[in-house]
Amino acid sequence: MNADVIRQAIEFEEYDRNDPEKRPELFIFDAGFINHGYVEEYSLRDKDFVELKRITDGKRAFLYCDNGHLEFFALKT
Question: pTM higher than 0.85 for the full model?
Answer without folding.
Answer: no
